Amino acid sequence: MMKSMSTTEQKSQYKMVSTFQRLVETQFSGDINALCWRRNPIGDFQEIASQLKINENITEIFIEDLNQLQLSENGKLARKFIIQDLQFLTDYGAQPSLNILKNYERDDEFDFISTDVYSYHVDRSPIESDTFLCTYFGASGDIIPNDQVQQKILIPEIREQLKILFNGPESEFEHFLKENYFDLHYQAIPNAKSTNLGNGNLWRLSVDHPGQKVSPCVHRAPIENEGELRLLLIC
């Protein structure tokens, strides 16, 4: 379930749409850098998650894997819902990936900055693209308005530590930050208000790419619920 927001907050962050076609055709504009096709899916997605075999922390699942599952009627409804999303996105020209996961890899190399997906971050692409996300089962991520975060590389104490780590000429420092993806990560300001993406909703988030007219959407992966897998579509 998404957190309640005031009308002003909602307009400043994301826009709701009612169909897949509107999700992919609606243009980002102004402060709106996220679109949500909100659904109330019917089916037992937990049944699917419990039957899928996971070989590593993250395992990609294909339609043939789903079709091999022996499911109840509610499980079959959930499977149909997922396959429909995969087909929608594939027909659109995207390359969706359905993952069952325990957790993502943690970045604990430095104690002064984290650059894993649990940190607020934006996605970057060399070509025009968007990020699509849908969590069918398990904990779901968050988005946050760009004016409620601060780029980590601009926080003085972090920047000083990064300069020490770099230990090179000042003229190449910005390239170092970008090359190592430090510039993609953000820290929430005090009293910031994030929006949970919820389960079953298909989101389209803006990406940092050449020609992008809005700010890229700042988001993060959730801390997984203990003992629970996540079933996630992403592309």
Quick structural summary:
This protein is an alpha+beta fold and 235 residues long. The chain has helices at 7-13, 20-25, 45-51, 63-67, 73-92, 156-166, 173-179; strands spanning 14-17, 34-37, 58-61, 97-101, 120-121, 130-137, 142-144, 149-151, 185-188, 195-196, 202-206, 218-220, 230-234.
Number of helical segments with 4 or more residues: 7
Please give the order of strands in the largest beta sheet: 1-2-11-6-13-4-3
Helix content: 25-40%
Major pleated sheet: 7 strands, mixed
Mean residue pLDDT: 93
The overall strand count is 13
Radius of gyration: 19 Å
Question: What is the terminal-to-terminal distance?
Answer: 22 Å
What is the SS-derived class?
A: alpha+beta
Strand content: 15-25%
Please write the string of helix (H) and strand (E) elements.
Answer: HEHEHEHHEEEEEHHEEEEE
The rough form would be described as globular
Uncertain ranges: 3-11
Oligomeric organization of the protein chains: single chain
Structural overview:
There is one protein chain. With 235 residues, the chain is α+β, with helices and mostly antiparallel strands. The chain has seven helices and 13 strands. The strands form three sheets. The chain has a seven-stranded mixed sheet with strand order 1-2-11-6-13-4-3. It has a three-stranded antiparallel sheet with strand order 5-9-8, with no helix packed on it. Strands 10-7-12 form a three-stranded antiparallel sheet, with no helix packed on it. Strand 1 (14-17), helix 2 (20-25) and strand 2 (34-37) form a beta-alpha-beta unit. Helix 3 (45-51) packs across helix 5 (73-92).
